[in-house]
């Protein structure tokens, strides 16, 4: 009852009529109750074939025009792969078109041999390094190509990270749309430079794992799982549909669609639609999101592929803009797409729609040059049988892997220069996360590391995807965490664990190393210069996290700290990890969030601990003092919406720091925060409008290009500031620019620049503000508009360390 009233109150606050339930107290059992909540937008637009797509589009039209209806339909559906591809499309043998291999995922090619495990999305986010992001993506995607993969199923910008406990937040870069958008742009440029199609995902509003898929009873679940909450009764008779993300239009544009616009602007040739519903229509059938937002407003040229099993209707998904059904057309489009042919023949869908699906798929293939010399698929189905060793690794990737791992680390506490180490004589090493997992090997026909559960040896990966949705726990107790779980899991060529790298260093530098990875209260040799404690925070696709800190790890830290006056904590965290249980302990002198560094984890940590390189990462999310400081809980089936779980995004754009700033909540570590081994001074902010920039309220008339109206990318203003390294070591600084768009959040990130500065030297950081960066979405006008008036602007080292301020006046 209470929550029902809250629902109505919140709804009227945002005046969103759809948020109000009607049949008080009685379970709604019929989906028709929700009809009309997501508007109908028909027809699904045909691929525009503009600008850089002209040639590929023309070639696709030519090839597709030779295909029969059945052949066109055949390439829109998946077939059971005879290889290790996550999915393969149908082929057109008559015309020699061999189809596409699609494979996971955004941090490396999953579940195979001879590939590298790159730093995960969260580490890319905390590096704030665009150039490195581009290089990582290029090197990673080159491995996909060498293995014959056409479509890389990533990167992730949805979930954005609305829910602190979200199981997949670590796959994305940041819960700030601007940071996420900047980094997804460079990631897609990198992937596609390597000749691989990127399928940016999950479109859209896929912000929690729980109830992401429909559940017909507790004994079964949809592909990919995402189950009922444990509080629900067993053996329900009616299907519980996927959770519905109810998102108003302004929030959609300013938050969740924003990074997808950057992805499309970068030329992403594919988008993956998501499992859950939006305004009670399934993501892969949603005419408003796919036909209107993606294919009209953003001018998307490529194809929409369903997440695996996310298709729940035949005609509706075709009309709703879905172009490819994975892993198969199943009941809806037919196993060879023949139902689609039927739909066309009996007039249920226009033939042009089917032709457009095929054209979009084939155009993407041409656009990436995959018609010329594309390597054959060399991903075997099983690895315990004889197979050709195809090395996809390039030695030139080594510095990219290491640098990515290093720059994803964020130093948050460093009392009296505890770090970097100065010629220690004795280091004591503790915590289950310091050592490599006991097994990186085949455990059955597949790899043990198939789904990134290396640090959870006793957990059966499938349990995260199917009932009873066992939660693997908050930590990976069996070894160092380099990646989260699920389809974003990686296949490391090796793992440099902290222990391994410290052993090497002990040999080279001649210090003594003691270690204990199992005791929760180890004895401490009082001659130790430092006690290092490595812990982790695990998260996986399929289930959301149970908490943001765990007592087991906190106990180890507190026990070591009680016996060691110089205790340093390093956390490998797949998402937000709270530290308030121990952060003020006087013996805890330094703390580093190491995130998910990939296979060069230990090597990276040691280079930072010993000061070979200065830390340069910054938080890409807010670390609160308490769980209760985060405003968005996981939505559960409740009240009359038991069979149709509702998730009302009533907080609007106020997630993470936008909410902390609005409510003036003091975080433990704010968005954008991170320390290093030197100090920087900021000076000389200059902000100005670009001469002759059109600052009219409405965006100048201009064509729709990939990503939206072209004039949204016009540069309206620029800013510069000067940074001086006032300390005594070389280090990189991420200077950040925040703007208050009148009427919007207190401040929003709208620029960042990472520069390396030697001691005593200065560098000028530069920011470019586009029309879209300074606009907000006007729902009535259905347009981005510039506010006329004063825009306060700040530049500094975090969202709360803002020594420089200025103003832009737009008139
Ligand atoms: C969802 O409903 C809200 C409120 O009516 C509307 O602003 C928004 O455009 C709708 N979005 C979709 C995708 O249906
Ligand atoms: C559809 O694709 C399958 C799988 O590649 C292929 O065996 C079949 O011949 C194709 N059908 C047509 C009509 O081309
Ligand atoms: C659910 O149904 C199964 C099979 O009918 C039965 O074995 C099980 O005991 C039931 N569980 C509950 C909690 O009723
Ligand atoms: C698809 O075709 C199969 C076989 O002809 C049929 O049983 C099924 O009902 C069709 N599905 C839809 C959604 O029309
Ligand atoms: C066309 O065929 C499909 C699949 O058999 C069926 O569901 C649909 O109702 C038919 N439509 C018409 C207009 O006959
Ligand atoms: C490979 O492993 C699977 C079990 O996971 C087994 O069924 C199969 O026989 C094995 N093949 C060989 C050649 O060992
Ligand atoms: C993994 O860690 C758990 C918890 O500490 C432990 O019970 C289990 O035995 C470990 N498994 C292996 C294979 O070491
Ligand atoms: C700090 O460590 C020392 C051991 O070096 C210990 O004696 C002291 O009690 C610790 N302080 C706290 C607050 O636990
Ligand atoms: C959060 O606040 C609750 C209630 O005040 C308290 O019980 C809990 O210990 C706090 N958690 C942390 C991590 O400080
Ligand atoms: C809705 O149905 C569920 C499952 O049968 C039941 O547990 C719940 O109490 C029902 N809710 C209402 C409001 O009737
Ligand atoms: C700026 O754009 C607006 C809106 O399209 C247009 O009316 C106006 O003429 C433009 N101003 C200049 C100076 O081009």
UniProtKB/TrEMBL annotation:
EC number assigned by the record: 3.2.1.21
Signal peptide interval: 1-25
Catalytic activity: Hydrolysis of terminal, non-reducing beta-D-glucosyl residues with release of beta-D-glucose
Cellular component, GO, one term: extracellular region
PANTHER family: BETA-GLUCOSIDASE, BETA-GLUCOSIDASE M-RELATED
Domain Fibronectin type III-like residues, every copy: 733-799
Pfam families referenced in this protein's UniProt entry, alphabetically: Fn3-like, Glyco_hydro_3, Glyco_hydro_3_C
Protein name as annotated: beta-glucosidase
GO biological process assignments: cellulose catabolic process
Main location: secreted
UniProt organism field: Pseudogymnoascus verrucosus
Subcellular location: Secreted
Pathways per UniProt: Glycan metabolism; cellulose degradation
Membership in a protein family: Belongs to the glycosyl hydrolase 3 family.
GO MF annotation, one: beta-glucosidase activity
Keyword set includes Signal: yes
Keywords: Carbohydrate metabolism, Cellulose degradation, Glycoprotein, Glycosidase, Hydrolase, Polysaccharide degradation, Secreted, Signal
């Amino acid at each position: 009852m209470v929550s029902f009233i809250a629902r109505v109150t919140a709804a009227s606050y945002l005046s969103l009529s759809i948020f109000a339930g009607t049949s008080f107290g009685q379970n709604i059992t019929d989906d028709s109750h929700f009809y009309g909540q997501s508007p109908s937008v028909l027809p699904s637009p045909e691929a525009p074939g503009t600008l850089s797509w002209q040639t590929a589009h023309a070639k696709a039209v030519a090839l597709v025009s030779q295909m029969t209806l059945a052949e066109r339909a055949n390439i829109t559906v998946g077939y059971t792969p005879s290889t290790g591809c996550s999915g393969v499309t149908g082929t057109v043998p008559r015309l020699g078109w061999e189809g596409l291999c699609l494979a996971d995922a955004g941090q490396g090619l999953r579940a195979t041999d001879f590939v590298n495990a790159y730093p995960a999305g969260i580490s890319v986010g905390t590096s704030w390094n665009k150039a490195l992001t581009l290089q990582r993506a290029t090197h990673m995607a080159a491995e996909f190509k060498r293995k014959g993969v056409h479509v890389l199923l990533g990167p992730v910008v949805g979930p954005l990270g609305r829910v602190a406990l979200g199981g997949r937040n670590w796959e994305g870069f940041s819960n700030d749309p601007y940071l996420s958008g900047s980094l997804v742009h460079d990631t897609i440029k990198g992937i596609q430079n390597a000749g691989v199609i990127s399928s940016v995902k999950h479109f859209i509003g896929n912000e929690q794992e729980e109830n992401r898929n429909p559940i017909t009873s507790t004994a079964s679940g949809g592909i990919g799982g995402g189950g009922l909450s444990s509080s629900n009764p067993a053996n329900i008779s009616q299907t519980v549909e996927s959770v519905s993300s109810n998102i108003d239009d302004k929030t959609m544009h300013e938050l969740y669609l924003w990074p997808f616009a950057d992805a499309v602007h970068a030329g992403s040739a594919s988008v993956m639609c998501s499992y859950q519903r939006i305004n009670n229509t399934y993501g892969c059938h949603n005419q408003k999101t796919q036909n209107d937002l993606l294919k009209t407003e953003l001018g998307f040229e490529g194809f929409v592929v369903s997440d695996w099993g996310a298709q729940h209707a035949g005609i509706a998904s075709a009309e709703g803009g879905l172009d490819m059904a994975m892993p198969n057309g199943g009941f809806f489009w037919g196993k060879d797409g023949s139902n689609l042919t039927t739909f066309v023949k009996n007039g249920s869908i226009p033939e042009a729609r089917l032709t457009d699906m095929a054209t979009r798929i084939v155009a993407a293939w041409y656009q990436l040059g995959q018609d010329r010399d594309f390597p054959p698929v060399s991903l075997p189905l099983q690895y315990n049988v004889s197979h050709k060793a195809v090395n996809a690794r390039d030695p030139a990737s080594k510095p990219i892997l290491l640098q990515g791992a290093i720059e994803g680390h964020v130093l948050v506490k460093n009392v009296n220069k505890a770090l970097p180490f100065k010629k220690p004589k004795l280091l004591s090493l503790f915590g289950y996360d310091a050592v490599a997992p006991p097994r990186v090997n085949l455990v059955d026909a597949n790899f043990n590391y198939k789904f990134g559960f290396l640090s959870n040896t006793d957990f059966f990966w499938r349990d995260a995807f199917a009932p009873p949705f066992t939660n693997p726990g908050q930590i990976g107790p069996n070894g160092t965490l380099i990646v989260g779980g699920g389809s974003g899991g990686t296949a490391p060529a090796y793992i440099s664990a902290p222990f391994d790298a410290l052993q090497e260093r002990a040999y080279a530098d001649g210090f003594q190393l003691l270690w204990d990875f199992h005791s929760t209260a180890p004895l401490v040799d009082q001659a130790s210069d430092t006690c290092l404690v490595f812990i982790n925070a695990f998260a996986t696709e399929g289930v959301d996290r149970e908490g943001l800190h765990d007592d087991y790890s906190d106990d180890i830290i507190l026990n070591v700290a009680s016996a060691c006056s110089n205790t340093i904590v390093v956390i490998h965290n797949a998402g937000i990890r709270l530290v308030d249980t121990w952060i003020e302990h006087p013996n805890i002198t330094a703390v580093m969030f190491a995130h998910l560094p990939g296979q060069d984890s230990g090597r990276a940590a040691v280079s930072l601990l010993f000061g070979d390189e200065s830390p340069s990462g910054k938080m890409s999310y807010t670390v609160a003092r308490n769980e209760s400081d985060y405003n968005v809980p996981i939505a559960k089936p409740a009240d009359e919406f038991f069979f149709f779980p509702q998730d009302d995004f009533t907080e609007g754009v106020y997630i993470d720091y936008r909410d902390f700033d609005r409510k003036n909540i003091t975080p433990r570590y704010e968005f954008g925060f991170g320390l290093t081994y030197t100090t920087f001074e900021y000076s000389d902010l200059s902000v100005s409008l670009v001469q002759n920039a059109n600052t009219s309220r409405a965006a100048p008339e201009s064509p729709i290009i990939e990503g939206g109206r072209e004039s949204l990318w016009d540069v309206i203003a620029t800013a510069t500031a000067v940074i001086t390294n006032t300390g005594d070591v070389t280090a990189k600084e991420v200077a950040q620019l925040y703007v208050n768009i009148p009427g919007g959040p207190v401040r929003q990130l709208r620029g960042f620049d990472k520069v390396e500065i030697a001691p005593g030297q200065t560098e000028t950081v530069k920011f470019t503000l586009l029309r879209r960066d300074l606009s907000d979405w006007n729902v009535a006008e259905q347009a981005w508009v510039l506010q006329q008036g004063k825009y306060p602007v700040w530049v500094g080292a975090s969202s709360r360390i803002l020594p420089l301020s200025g103003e832009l006046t737009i008139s």
